[in-house]
Amino acid sequence: MCPRRLGARPLSSPALNLLRGTLVLLLLLPPCCLASSRGLIRPGAVWRDQQGRPIQAHGGGILYDHHTWYWFGEDRTQGLDPALRYVSCYSSRDLVHWKFRGRPLQLADPEHLGPHWVLERPKVFYSPLTHRFVMYVHLDDARYKLARVATAVSDRVTGPYKYVRSFRPLGLESRDIGQFVDDDGSAYLIFESRPSGGFYIAQLSPDRLSVVKAVAFIHTSLEGGALVHDHGLYYVMGSHLTGWRPNPNVYATAAQLSGPWSEFREVAPDVPDTYGSQSSMLLKVHGTDKTAVIFLGDIWKPRSLWDSRYLWMPLQMRDGRMVLPSPAPWSIDVKTGVTHVYPDSSPSQ
Ligand code: DGJ
Fold this sequence. Notes:
This protein is mainly beta.
């Protein structure tokens, strides 16, 4: 007699029918309904972490460390202590599923700025010199007159981060900040500086604790500054200064960071408002087959900031042009760098 192998019990025919039916149903379903099972990013939808809670990482920045992406951002969760400002951290190995790693910075008003003080756009840099992590944030008073950055450090990427100091980079007013790490490892802070009518790309010191020199000043008033280096060209991006309201985000290119920079062009030329979003970062995913450049943007809801959403989309990069396509669910294989957009699916849930 043939011995029966464990787990190889034949399926009864009702069970087989059920299995067949489920498979047929799965094949017929449009991709939008398979968001989690197929690992889709859905721009504009509520994006939940692995515990099922909406991701709170607005105006964020991403750090890649040991095969993991860390997403830091403003935590606007309702009901937190109104005297404190919170930076949250999430980690992911596929850019789709994010694990909440806590609030590595929970800061009380560090410069006596008053009850409505502002902490925005956290960005974390790694220092290969000190092996420490340095967080930059935009620090301000309620009227945005202070115009400084603040720094905080940690030995671990997920914190806790210890407040260091606040200052104006290179002595200049600084509001929105962006981060950029070049392929050679050098790190830059992008900061909008209103009196000059433009923004700076400034190099950080090897310990990442100070801003040492302006590599470029771009004489165009833009905030939400972001930068990427792709196929030998630098692309800098930003939004116009319209508060929380979206506007046509623009980009320029240069062969070198110091310029000369091209004229600015709209990244989403078919719509007036960048699909309701504002740039926060340009993320490069270098895979075995392709390099994807991803637009990371915020869809702000100023009256309910906790419910602000994210617009992440792979950019179409061709011949020195970058185009943000119409938002739609999409997937990425972070190993190959291949992205796939499902344009017929509903962009929100
Ligand atoms: C636009 C900036 O990009 C945001 O980070 C925030 O500072 C709002 N302005 C406030 O109006």
